[in-house]
Amino acid sequence: MSPDWWRWVASRDSLTARLVAAGGQRDFRVRLLDQRLGRPHRDEALALGLPHTRLAWLREVALCLDERPWVMARSVVPLDGLHGQRLEGLGERSLGSWLFRQPDLVRGPLEVADHPASFPAARGPWARRSVFRHRRFAVLVQEYFLDSMMDDLGLPSR
Ligand SMILES: C=C(O[C@@H]1C=C(C(=O)O)C=C[C@H]1O)C(=O)O
């Protein structure tokens, strides 16, 4: 992986904040694509230590700069962890804007994939995922860095 991509893929702070900074004069926007209760994919349930049959809160967004998606994200929250969290009300506010305000937030190890099975209708060189935990709350955050981000920032292909 090139150092230019490593700085993005291996970062452990808020991706939202990094995108806003890198976007310069471009407007940052979270476009909500889907948000519902559903069954996680088998590998997602495994990453969360969740029985596959258990329902979870699923959220899919595109993180856009001037309406151009740079990152697609899919997050999975086990229902029993939603106790007291009103994440359904997030809408088009960034999940990160809530997550990184939690005082005792813990982020697990980052898993990285190159040329991941593309997120529906999006292609890109790298994807990553990690589990954030805060008290009884857990969320698996999966982020797909897109070719449009690579082009707009002049990043290398790998
Ligand atoms: C976890 C963060 O939140 C970002 C925003 C997301 C959302 O609004 O659904 C999902 C993944 C992240 O890229 C972050 O900013 O680091």
TrEMBL record:
GO terms for molecular function: chorismate lyase activity. The keyword Secreted does not apply. It catalyses: chorismate = 4-hydroxybenzoate + pyruvate. Pathway: Cofactor biosynthesis; ubiquinone biosynthesis. It is found in: Cytoplasm. The keyword Iron does not apply. Keywords: Cytoplasm, Lyase, Pyruvate, Ubiquinone biosynthesis. It holds the Pfam family Chor_lyase. Its main location: cytoplasm. It is an enzyme of class 4 (lyase). Its EC number is 4.1.3.40. InterPro entries: Chorismate--pyruvate_lyase, Chorismate_lyase_/UTRA_dom_sf. It comes from the Bacteria. Substrate binds at R59, L95, E143. Removes the pyruvyl group from chorismate, with concomitant aromatization of the ring, to provide 4-hydroxybenzoate (4HB) for the ubiquinone pathway. Belongs to the UbiC family. This is Probable chorismate pyruvate-lyase. It comes from Halomonas saccharevitans. The gene is ubiC.
